[in-house]
């Protein structure tokens, strides 16, 4: 096994990535960011093992268990089974898994899930209120729930806007009812990011939400070369994550995986660890809408305030995002 | 005796005879036409209503041109009729030397009808799609031309994929640090170095050419992935190259449809046009070309007239590497400025297919690459026209087209070279 | 007749190890240790050295240090390399756990390696092992979760399914090559991509998906179809399973097929000289399809090993890059089934060790890929090795390709 | 000019191809180089032409030691060579081939001046009356014309010393005469000429001096005025040789092979065999004569199932075997000695044992079901090696390690080793030394006398004359004449081979 003595004395926060790798600019990355921040604040050292293939999950988990990590962070549904097995085999270790929930819950695993559609709903509403062409678009990486939940929320947000304002803003690239739409089928090719955004723009979209990790950077790049084209970022605030093209991010659908992981680490290292499912919502700011930054004056102030109240309505349940 | 031997000239006679293989192939092709006709009729014709609106100009073009509106069903009926006719004619007489041309036209019509069906009831931008097709053809063309240069001197270059990837990687890093121009040069150079390795392995050590190429692919993939995770992840500033913007060529750019599609592109596209022209002229009009082809076709013959076979092979392969490396820079400097593991995703191999499809001729290679580019941009486009086809299948399109093309045509195309390692005692 | 050298008094060959060595040495009368043992060994050594250099360059801080304090930099680099390779070694053979891990990873590698080696033996270059693994795996998967049968029937059934799936996916390029001359190098690679997408799609289909979830994760294989673990009674974590035994049996079978059966004779004849094969009345067209189908079947078995052996389910791209490592492996094993087994164990060790290296040092796991590529470079060009180490070995470079069109 | 080879030695893996050879050639003379296959003639010439580098020894031009790094240097030194196997690029035009390597160019960047090239070609061809169309594509030209292109090529590089390596092997007697007058012109023009051949008559007709090579060494020079075919042959082989085959008269029985109106296409889809009909009877040897490339290859391939015919029928012992598979034909007990042993007759990477069962492995006793019986195969191999005197250390060495002649013996042994009703042998003794030729010829006659029908295809007129009971001449895909050897002459057959049709 992979046990080496270096620093097994002090506390460790350990992440096992899925096959996307730690530099996926997506959930592996934000989980890692949270782990690192927590490690810094609580004087632990952060460790990560990248999984190259399915077969690696079990091994990576085991080597962390051997290292006696205080919290093992696993990322994504692919690690669902492996994490469950490891947790059951090692009741004394603590785990937390991103984007996954067990039912019934496992004693020593904390699931971290996010109602991303709540935030995406708001983004859709903003986009619908801001578009000049009356058409907005979105595309995804792979047709899987953690991706399509963004697209569902986005489209429903637009529809809600149309319903409110009697407008007819079109959304290209996703149909929540048939669950079919436009997908790059990868989370790597920035060139696809360009191409898919371009084809949406060709059809008149002027605001695009790419839900495909780094692929979106390609779309942002394209947008920054054209004028009047804006991007809605996902997961993290594109304005900060992608400084080159900061100016074209209308807003971003925040999915604060980092905060959730940080919180879990906090619990684990300070003896308050529970296996209660963590659900990121607008309410607990596990998900949210990023500020408009440079484009603030592009979003009419009354639209801004409508978004604020819409947020409260969603939190209060007055408006349902799963429309 | 002059006259005696001229009698011997060719053992042919007036009696026109086709090989059984030819006949079989012709019939198969005919059946393909008929199947396409049936498919068009059944899938795109019957029961599909609504007009498809093809947008062929962009807002802001110098000359705005009206949209083309076609009834999907109507078009399908016409196309399937034509295809059926082609099939019948193919079965009865065949098209002789024009077979491929006709096939291309037939497939084009089929694609058109397919589009009309997909876009029925909505509108979509042909300009956009063709523009995208050209962009996507760029790395494929560079790969294919690289292949042509190598194979014309008798070296199979399976390593194109690796050279593209190496170029992309280098372009990103050098571009980020020393600027785009330096990035493109460096990318080309890296391609050249990889090609040199290929040349040494195959020419000097007589390693099986295909193995050598595959080695280069695996090696570059491993190396770039290793350094990406090892260096680029922590040092994003090394992976943030400037990007070549598209610029419109005066006048040409104003031609309706053609203009925006062909002449409002970035430097790589224009470089592609130049490259194709240059290699075509070079291969068939210059001394270098004659010698290159001689070395490929019959190395010993070239050797006996004092041509240095080895250095010809070395230089042409290296040249091919430079081309592939530069083409690789398209992925980063020419498109998104950022390198990602295995971002070439098989384009190098599609380039090889394009080379074969294009019969080892630069212009042929370009046309073939455009077909793939089209298939590629088509799948992007179809995603947003809610077609019932799952996106995973759309994503297969370029690869399927490649297989169909190679299977359909390589059988009949004769490689221009003797690929066996040249031995000199 | 007088001046004709006498034949050696050796009795006619008995099948078995001696003849295995004969095969291993081509047709030479005595064992060619230099060509088949020494050169590969040196190739591996060289690859490790070159890999070390690459690792060194992967560490910017130390690289910077060279400017200021070369001595320190040197020792840092050496330590880093030392740690890395020690970790690599321990992770591969440092105890029962690592060995179990090595064997677990060796099984699919060996099977996929056979898939490539068979191709080489018949002059075909099968780069499609990955796709064939995926399809074979999916076939085994369906059998694995769909039917509820006693183990003694269920496992063999899953194996057969895997063989069939792989054979189909391998047979297609074979057929295309034989009938249209489409070169297998291109078609197999394209079929890899297609298989990848196909699996992505299938995993979104109700029938395959885990009940109650719509992630692209398949239903789990029933226990009755899972390969039993071999030494989990010692430690539940030792996951080496039946797969490795199946792999070795498969290697033996392929050896028998190639060197003891008429079919193998035909395979090898087609590979060595297609014209000669036609002249000898062999059905070259059928043979090419058959070769690719058999190769595909082996790859399919490798995919099955992953699904009903190691993983128990299918997810997008569940075979990783095993199918590509298999190429290096087949070359290293000189396309001989038993050579493939040896090479498979080595690469299994590299994979397990690389895992451990990543865990205990900061050296990324991709380096294993690089080292494997380097191994092929040196293997593919024995002349290179001979030049470097001044070995006198009459090894000629492996030859597989037969140009483009047939 | 004077060119001297001094102490030239050349080693190949396992072969001493040239052994301390000394040779001199001067302007205005014709030197004939004689030697059996593999004696080292081509190797020596290739060294002189800078293609191979000598292991030892040196080359002197006009007394100066020169060093050739490649043909370029040799050409520069005024040496030209017409190779045994033509060195032309098949898909190029005549003009392109002639100027290749010394292309006339116009403007910058080496742009080809092809019209200039055309002019040069026409000039030379008119000067030495070697008419040929500068724009013809080489692969469409018959060998005779291809040879002219080679000669023009050499003259275009104004060579002083011209080497011809077995130029007459592919020519009809008439073409040979034509060729001789050409080189006589060249000689008169002050060129020095080295002329390589196996054919003793030709040597005596044309040579000023004769040098004989054996096993790589010069075994002596001969004076054409005094030498006879017999003495030359003995110098070549190193022992007395019988130059004729002794065989009794044939007793033809019933028809075994019956070919009617056969049409076969060649690789370029041209009709290579055109309405060919003939019979071969039990107990007779039928020889097909003809210049290479007149359809013999395609004919044999069609008869043995290696090429689809597009018209006509083939019957063997009464049954229809038109377009049957090689396997079916093999099962009909037909022996086939293929034209190109290395390409199709053998698998060079296989052991002799494997090669001996190459076409019968699929059946008892060599296999049972799909299980090979290697012990049995090996015994068979050793039997055949014994019986056919194949020179090899053991049955387990690779075929590639055998000499050409011994490789041929392996094939003959495999095909004649079982009892067959029909023997089809093309070029049975190509590249085989005189000793082996005798042996193989005797075996062929023996097969006939054992009651097989035998079909021989050979471009060696002498061989056809010596072996056949009936001779068919093939020209341009047709059978243009049928003769009995005793009622015809080389000269007459040569006429038919050159296309003048039979009025008999
Ligand atoms: N490239 C080579 N490698 C190894 N051996 C060779 C090579 N070329 C020729 N040889 C050997 O060298 C010897 C001389 O060959 P060479 O071709 O010179 O004979 P030759 O006199 O020209 O015979 P032929 O009359 O058949 O042309 C033969 O034993 C031949 O097998
Ligand atoms: N290309 C080659 N590579 C390696 N060894 C060769 C080659 N050619 C010939 N030899 C070796 O040289 C020996 C002599 O071969 P060579 O071809 O000279 O015979 P030969 O004199 O031509 O007799 P034959 O007339 O039967 O061909 C052979 O036994 C063979 O082992
Ligand atoms: Mg010989
Ligand atoms: Mg010769």
Explain what you see.
The complex is a heterotetramer of chains A (323), B (425), C (406) and D (504). Chain B is mainly alpha-helical. Chain B has two domains: 19-121, no CATH class; 128-406, ABC transporter involved in vitamin B12 uptake, BtuC, CATH 1.10.3470. Chain B contains 16 helices and five strands. Chain B is globular, with a radius of gyration of 24 Å. Chain C has one domain: ABC transporter involved in vitamin B12 uptake, BtuC, CATH 1.10.3470. Chain C has helices at residues 17-24, 33-57, 60-68, 70-93, 96-121, 129-146, 151-180, 184-202, 242-260, 262-272, 274-279, 284-311, 322-332, 337-360, 366-380, 382-389. In chain C, helix 5 (96-121) runs antiparallel to helix 12 (284-311) and helix 13 packs parallel to helix 15 (366-380). Chain C is globular, with a radius of gyration of 23 Å. Chain D has 17 helices and 24 strands. At the B-D interface, helix 1, helix 2, helix 11 and helix 12 of B face helix 2, strand 8, helix 5, helix 6 and strand 14 of D. Bound molecules: adenosine-5'-triphosphate (2 copies) and magnesium ion (MG) (2 copies). One adenosine-5'-triphosphate binds next to helix 14 of chain D.
Query: How many domains of chain B, as an integer?
Result: 2
- Which strand-content bin applies to the residues of chain B? under 5%
Provide the residue-averaged pLDDT of chain B. Answer: 85
Determine the structural class of chain D based on helices, strands and strand pairing.
alpha/beta
The largest sheet of chain D is: 6 strands, mixed
- Radius of gyration from the alpha-carbon trace of chain D, in angstroms: 24 Å
Largest interface: B-D, 42 and 65 residues
| SSE ordering of chain B | HHEEHHEHHHHEHEHHHHHHH
Number of strands of chain B: 5
For the biggest sheet of chain B, the summary is: 3 strands, mixed
Major beta sheet, strand line-up of chain B: 2-1-3
**Mean pLDDT reading of chain D:** 88
Briefly note the CATH topology name of the largest domain in chain B. Answer: ABC transporter involved in vitamin B12 uptake, BtuC
SSE-based structural type of chain B: mainly alpha
